[in-house]
Write a structure and sequence with these properties.
The protein is mainly α and 350 residues long. Helices cover 66% and strands 0% of the residues.
Length: 350
């Protein structure tokens, strides 16, 4: 009985050593030569092996804040897509090659002069024509404004002098400068005096009618002379926008041709032609808008000038009517004077 207890104790000690060696990954060393034979007869008491860590699957996505891996036996969940395990830093990916058209840059000189120099020959011709039309517009404005101002000032002074006169001859003398009648009002006075002198032996009604016709023709001629050049302003104002539009269409057509040749819609390819086209439209508007405004201003001014001439014609006709009536009254007493008595010859009676 005592020997059986010793065998059981030795078997227990041997099982403990074997389980410890297996847990450390080393082969167990027997304590004696007789122990193995005895252990085979006794029941072996073993401990369950320790759980091995499970492998952590590799994740493809790597967020910005990775966390270190943890063992599942410590009660920590394995890494997820939000917090993947630490991985070795990878080099940044090389940038994709950029096409040649995308690397093109816009022209450095986008000023009006630079766009004009870079424009097509047709667009250049349109721009030059519109610039010349604008120059003509301002030249007409300067010349016609000075002419119209001088004519209106002279007509106003002559009209005041005519109104202050008592007769046609006195009005002609007061309106004359250095003995000569000048300007449109001077022409009106000269025509009235000439017709009165030619029709001295004719009726009063015929004289008034002929003078009125002559004055109306002089007014029309003076108005046409003052309106000379304003028709060109009307032409420029009505056609310049369409000429600029032609340059715009031509420039946009060249832009589409450039797109088809470059096989890209990059802004560097499209923008220059469109800018040149819009510049042609802008120059057309610059030429047209002042021309229309100046034409309207001159139309009103010329209408006012014609009104001054009409007032002067009315004053001249009034003076003419008074002069004719005075002449008629002066001639009336002479016609009513009695004729001299005929001499009576006394014949002696036989």
């Amino acid at each position: 009985m005592r020997a059986f207890r010793l065998v059981l104790a030795a078997a227990a000690v041997s099982a403990l050593f074997a389980s410890g060696a297996r847990a450390q990954g080393e082969p167990s060393q027997p304590q004696g030569q007789s122990a193995p034979s005895q252990v085979q007869q006794a029941p072996q008491v073993t401990q369950p092996p320790a759980a091995e860590p499970r492998p952590i699957p590799a994740l493809q996505a790597t967020p910005t804040n990775p966390l270190p891996s943890a063992l599942p036996q410590l009660g920590i969940n394995p890494p997820s897509s939000a917090h993947p395990p630490l991985t070795a830093e990878q080099p940044p990916a090389a940038p994709a090659p950029v096409p040649a058209a995308a690397t093109a840059v816009l022209p450095h000189d986008l000023s009006p002069w630079g766009m004009f120099m870079a424009a097509d020959i047709v667009v250049k011709a349109v721009m030059l024509g519109l610039a010349f039309a604008s120059l003509v517009t301002w030249t007409i404005w300067l010349a016609k404004a000075m002419e119209l101002a001088a004519a209106k000032a002279g007509a106003t002074r002559a009209l005041r002098r005519i109104e202050a006169s008592d007769s046609l001859s006195e009005a002609a003398g007061s309106a004359a400068k250095k003995g000569k009648l000048r300007g449109a009002v001077g022409d009106l006075l000269s025509a009235a005096l000439t017709e009165t002198r030619r029709s001295a032996d004719l009726g009063e009604d015929g004289i008034k009618e002929r003078v009125a016709i002559a004055l109306s023709r002089i007014e029309a001629r003076a108005g046409r002379a003052m309106a000379r050049g304003t028709g060109l302003l009307a032409t420029i104002g009505s056609t310049a926008p369409f000429v600029g539009l032609f340059g715009t269409v031509w420039g946009i057509m060249n832009s589409f041709i450039g797109i088809s040749q470059a096989k890209t819609t990059n802004l560097a390819v499209v923008a220059p032609g469109i800018a040149e086209a819009l510049l042609a439209t802008a120059i057309g508007l610059v030429a047209a808008i002042p021309a229309v405004i100046i034409y309207n201003v001159f139309s009103r001014s010329i209408a006012g000038y014609r009104a001054l001439l009409s007032d002067a014609s009315g004053e001249i006709l009034r003076h003419l009517s008074r002069d004719l009536e005075r002449r008629h009254r002066a001639a009336a007493p002479a016609s009513r004077a009695p004729a001299p008595a005929a001499a009576v010859s006394l014949v002696p009676a036989e």
